[in-house]
Amino acid sequence: MNMMQTQCPFCSVQCKISLHRTESGIMPAPPSAEMHSASRYSSWQAEGVPNAASQGRICVKGMNAHQHAMNRERLMFPLVRRNGALVRATWEEAMERIGSHFQTAIRQQGADSIGVYGGGSLTNETAYLLGKFARIGLGTRYIDYNGRFCMSAAASAGSKVFGLDRGMTCRLEDIPLARCIILAGTNIAECQPTLLPYFNQARANGAKIIVIDPRRTSTAAIADLHLQIRPGTDAMLALAMLKILVQEGWIDEEFIQQRTGGYEDLTTLLDGIETEDVAQLCGIPAEQIRQAASWYGLAETGIIFTARGVEQHTDGHLAVRYLINLVLATGKIGRPGCGYGAVTGQGNGQGGREHGQKADQLPGYRSIENAADREYIASVWQVDPADIPGKGVSAYEMMELAACRDIRTLFVMGSNPVVSNPNIPLVRSALEGLNMLIVADMFLSETARMADVVLPVTSYLENTGTLTNLEGRVLLREAALPAPGEARDDWRILCDLADRLGRGRHFLFQTAEEIFEELRIASRGGLADYYGITYERLRREEGIYWPCPSPEHQGVPMMFTEQFAHADGRASFTATPHHAVREQPSPVYPLILTNGRVLAHYLTGVQTRRSAALAARELENFVEVHPLTARQHHLQDGEWTEIQSAHGRFFVRCRISENIRPDTLFVPMHWGGTQNVNEATPPELDPYCKMPGFKLTAVTIRPVHVGAAQRQYQSMQC
Ligand SMILES: Nc1nc2c(c(=O)[nH]1)N[C@H]1C(S)=C(S)[C@@H](COP(=O)(O)OP(=O)(O)OC[C@H]3O[C@@H](n4cnc5c(=O)[nH]c(N)nc54)[C@H](O)[C@@H]3O)O[C@H]1N2
Ligand SMILES: Nc1nc2c(c(=O)[nH]1)N[C@H]1C(S)=C(S)[C@@H](COP(=O)(O)OP(=O)(O)OC[C@H]3O[C@@H](n4cnc5c(=O)[nH]c(N)nc54)[C@H](O)[C@@H]3O)O[C@H]1N2
Ligand code: SF4
Ligand SMILES: [Mo]
Question: Which ligand lies nearest to the CA atom of residue 64 in the structure?
């Protein structure tokens, strides 16, 4: 084969890609199954394919994504732990070990002793089946997924305010129509790079772009106004802006009256909010807050975007809702050039949160606590509603349950939790204490290395399924290559395991499309209604926005044009008072550590560090430090540093940069082990949505000799 069509496995834009075999790159035939992939390595070239979201663009990650899928480190056969080491096993051996362990665990400790941990890279079909497998295959209430760390603050805010969460309420094509765009804690230029031209177009059309970020990022570089905020203070900034809008009368009274509820209650919330005080708290000039409020308030159209910079805080849910207050007060939603957008992160971060791998959700955004929802899904699954367990706990809370041995078995599919959770010291010991850890992955990730059984799965090039991009557009990605070695599709593993648990009759699927057919019915009538979407339509129409309630329906590109999704059709203002954030700098830990992403790497780096072209761009982790702070703490550029919080410590190289606030440090999240920023992040969660406070840790920093760093780290592990 010399050409294949696929879709990037990384971020939420889901750019369409074609891969072409290049003559010069062909390598000799592989000597064995293990080397299967080596023959294809680097002999392919990626090109963007025109599509509605990225319009044919791809970024450096998409360009090189095939390198990890074709990497020789791909897992080709199952592994089981024997005498302490992971060794090759047959599928039968591995599955038998898991199946009989599950049965014993259920019999002896109950199904709730098993936790299931999913991910936002999984297709809709796999995510749906994982939820079904947990609930009626195993019968456990404990399932959650890495999207808890990603989407939970914004998703819960959208549900609360609008009655429904679809990430973006508008289309990407609305961006160039907006006259004012607020990018709050979102680094589009590095995290969704192919979307940047939409914003450049908006600027060319005269829009004012406001970026709120503690760092001068490449996204901030396109801003007309950069609010270089102190991490963790976005909620107060939003309140100050709202107060200015109200005081100046830059509000849409008609919209407020006809389409919203709760505006009157804002008076108490805004009482005592003074721009000058907030400016001091946020570490930005008061004049900038007024400027931002006036640009947004006076613009005829506008969009506010948030991403993890605002959301990954223990007050992230409220911070988002306060920002949406600005949208509602100015009536900037439900019409062209207007809206709110939570910039979804993972490839299927959107679909992954709709079909039941979240602790409290059933497919179609149904609630596991609602009797009618339970009854409907039970009818689709052909079980008694009483057989569907109740709601479980969030991803990090599952780790806490594992630490106290309430959860004794963990099944991980599509995540690397020992790197991506906060407060890794607890998570590591929780995973070490399990009776059995099972990991389904393409690679021996840091978590897989700790597992008792590792199951090799197919990559994006080899499996078929649907993914829902950041706009809520459902896209079909079809297998382009056969599975390498003995790797299997995730969903086939689930069907096999269910069969071993005597639940096979509920999992009689032969293709991904058959699962989608059931998902369509399961989502029917729910908020995220996929009923009208079929593979056949997706092939023909390229992508379809949900909700799409019937096969004749065209889908809904722009939400809330006439009604919001609450029973009364109105959106709700948020007047809930702000709550204090526990983690704060102190004399011992005077600096604020925040964290995030760089262009070339993806999440915990399991994939991108196995792509030669991407790995070469950033070989190891670093901390971005302002020159003043570097001087104060005796740090040299390029030198190793130790960063310590009240929760733990890690070691990274110093990168001195004028682009960051002097009171703030920034460390990427793409490395595990001694360079993992999450060794130091705090365990506290947002009370509304259980999002960890990743983006704010009080720390201190000091230079350290690398040998000493390693020794200290080893002693800290003991
Ligand atoms: N290259 C790349 N792209 C990715 C990913 C990746 O790993 N690498 N991951 C994907 C996924 S899963 C996700 S969730 C998205 C994440 O996309 P983003 O949320 O855009 O990425 P982050 O870098 O985590 O955070 C964004 C910005 O928030 C800023 N920030 C930190 N603290 C604060 C704060 O308190 N307030 C404000 N206003 N800003 C703050 C950081 O400086 C950073 O520039 O990206 C997706 N795309
Ligand atoms: N400090 C800090 N921590 C963070 C964040 C932060 O900003 N700061 N961001 C958080 C966010 S937004 C996210 S999304 C999480 C993500 O963190 P993780 O959930 O750890 O995500 P990945 O690193 O993508 O790990 C996914 C694993 O699944 C594998 N995989 C990929 N595709 C598939 C598939 O189709 N099937 C299977 N079975 N496996 C697959 C990959 O090889 C990889 O090992 O991290 C969170 N952690
Ligand atoms: S990482 Fe995102 S922007 Fe880049 S090619 Fe992939 S889907 Fe497109
Ligand atoms: Mo994410």
Answer: 3
